[in-house]
Amino acid sequence: MADDFFGDQVAERYDTSQDDMFANEAIEPAIDVLAELAGDGAALELGIGTGRLALPLSRRGVPVHGIDLSSAMLARLAAKPGAEQIGVTLGDFAHTRVPGSFQLGYLVFNTIMNLTSQDEQVACFGNVAAHLDVGGCFVIEVMVPDLQRLPPGETVRPFTVAATKLGFDEYDLVTQRLVSHHYRWDGDRLESSSIPFRYVWPAELDLMARIAGMTLLHRWNDWHRNPFTSDSRQHVSVWQKAR
Ligand SMILES: C[S@@+](CC[C@H](N)C(=O)[O-])C[C@H]1O[C@@H](n2cnc3c(N)ncnc32)[C@H](O)[C@@H]1O
Question: Average pLDDT of 76-104?
Answer without folding.
Answer: 98
